[in-house]
Amino acid sequence: MHQHRSEEEALDAFRQAKDEFFRTDPYSPLTPEQQTVFDGLSYYPYNPSLDLRLPLDRDVSDEPVVMDTSTGDRREYRRAGKIRFEVKGEPAELTIYEGPEGDLFLPLRDVTSGKETYGAGRYLEPEWLDEDSVEANFNLLYNPYCAYNDAYSCPLPPLENWLQVPIEAGEKKFHE
Questions:
Q1: Which residue, 80, 69, 78, 79, is CA-closest to 129?
Q2: 169 contacts 50 by C-beta, under 8 angstroms
Q3: 157, 94 in Cβ contact below 8 A?
Q4: What residues of the chain score a pLDDT lower than 50?
Q5: What is the reported pLDDT for 175?
Q6: How far apart are CA 80 and CA 102, in angstroms?
């Protein structure tokens, strides 16, 4: 029980700091006009069942994956591996990509996309636990900057990461 409480407190602190950044920082994705009326991002409550430590199936194609972006550019990634898990008893599988610096990137769409969450999908940066497993804490799912401001270019989740289950964790849709 205590483990969940500290995870939840850490998540709350992280969310408060992010709101502060959005409201006050010159590097915030919000325009100065948006910043003056911004009253915080909207989130799902902490969901311990979506804070996962999973084996990473490294047996994936090494063909580069070209992702379209919200502005029509393209970005290239490599697949790091696949994770498999269950959401409310339903199986789910996602591909995790590796950026040029070896950082992990997990863009996804799920059945909340376009309803409770941003239509173009949300992002997660899983953490390596060791060379064969990752932490994927979906409570940290966030909206790409293009959810707030059209000036940003954001990779769109490839079809292999469109889930048929709801990921009810992380950031919800931005309301002006």
A1: 80
A2: yes
A3: no
A4: none
A5: 79
A6: 9
The answer to whether 105 and 96 have CB atoms below 8 angstroms apart is yes
Dig out the tokens for 86 from the structure.
Answer: 């269950």
Residues 6+ apart with CB under 8 A from 169: 44, 46, 47, 50, 138, 139, 141
The reply to whether 34 falls in a domain is no
Give the domain range for residue 61: 39-161
> Cα separation of 138 and 169, whole Å?
6
pLDDT tens digits, one per residue of 110-128: 999 999 999 999 999 999 9
Beta bridge partners of 53: 135
Is residue 4 included in any domain, yes or no?
no
Domain count, the chain: 1
pLDDT for the residue numbered 5: 78
**Domain for residue 58, yes or no?**
yes
Residue pair 119/108 in contact (Cβ under 8 Å)? The answer is no
Rounded (5°) CA angle 104-101-28? 75
